[in-house]
Amino acid sequence: MAIDKIDYTRICFVIMPFGKKKVGEQEVNFDFIYDEVFEPAIKATPLPEGDGLRLIPKRTDKDFFAGDISQEMFEYLEYSRFALADISGLNANVFYELGVRHHSHEAGTAVFRQAGTPVPFDINTIKAFAYAYQPAENVPKSRELITKILTESLRYNRLDSPVQKALLAQRGRAANTPAGRNVEDLLRTAENAIRAQEWPKAIEIYREAVASDPGNYSLRLRLGLFLKDRGLWPDALEQFAAAVQAETKYSDAWREQGIAENKVYIKDGRPAGRQTGETSLRKAIELNPSDYDALASLGGVLKRDADYLDGQGKKQEALDQYRRAYESYQKATDVSDGHSYPLLNEIKLAGRIDGKIPSDIRVRLRLPKAERALEAQVATQPPINAPWSFFDLSEIRLYAGDAKGFVDTLMKGLTYCNADWQPETHLKSLLLLKAGGVSLPGLDEGVQLLKDATAELKKTAASKA
What we know:
60% of the residues lie in helices and 7% in strands. By secondary structure, the protein is of the alpha/beta class. The protein has a domain at 3-165: Rossmann fold (3-Layer(aba) Sandwich), CATH 3.40.50. The strands form two sheets. Strands 4-1-5-6-7 form a five-stranded parallel beta sheet. Helix 3 links the parallel strand 5 (82-86) and strand 6 (109-114). The longest helix has 22 residues, at 443-464. The protein starts with 10 loop residues before the first strand and ends with a helix. The relative contact order is 0.06. Mean pLDDT is 86; it is low at 62-68 and 169-180.
């Protein structure tokens, strides 16, 4: 294949698995995804130079990797105007090609993943856009999302390669701190502090990195997420708001801003005129309709509002708001194809509204899938998404009638809590079941365990203040 026979200025090379591959517990047909999602989305992407020109999708044939990696693949990675990588399933060939592409190009690469699939720690600073292809009505939404991301990426041509960013810093072209340390050095130091559980030191170093590159919205989001995990909500909100201001179309920043706004709003006593988080979350959903986390977080905002109305004695208003929250969780469950977080919240709200746990086929099919995924998360060292993966797994066992499994798994999750808001959040969600009159073996014991853990963590925090 001679380079001069292909107009690489119009090519979007797709880096993805071929055929049917496992993604978690699910078998995924990646050929279908290419044919029905990626290829049409790429063909609909206009080039910024106009004249009606659009991107042309290219993918090597499905048995390409049967022999040695060939010259053609490297030429596509090196010369293509754009590259789209799907990291769902954590395929080794995909990560190899993505690494080659990032080394070759400062810009022109977009990473995607199926909603609900993890992003490995090694590349968690890279924006990985979530898409969904099931149920079928998500396909056109995902096409639209991908076309929009590719269009904006081509127009702005921002630096998106972590490899090139690190090399630029090494050459002295990245912003340096007054002490002479560049951003990448600071981030490595911060990550080492996190591994050593030196939380104040990690925060200090992250702040130093942000101060050296204040317009870096991705870095601000990263610091905000770390502050959020430490329960430092006002500080986290400050970083999320700065990320939104730096990049108004950054859906993840809008989502996290909405979550933090709601947390601060409630902690401050629901002051009049303060942002509740609903507006920011709706903006995040507008920018990325496949973001099940934003949909589920919106459900959380509406649910907490309903709890407040219920406590004020406004029973009918509360019930109406619970129903709106339930609908938002349902959408999140469908977009994520049964992710445990929205699914379990949907079940609890059904218990609150109807006084019973739903047993329809839609729920019965999804609970075992969610259980398998959670079992895989808690089995890793360290566990993925602790304590929430343990909390969710324990809840599934509660609904299965396994009282001992519920309490034992819940207790394991509590050992990973480092702030009182974590068990308290789960406690409030389980109390929805009791408020609806639902009675399950082990529920009362689990509720008491969460109350005791919350009180203990509050006491520990007070002693350190």
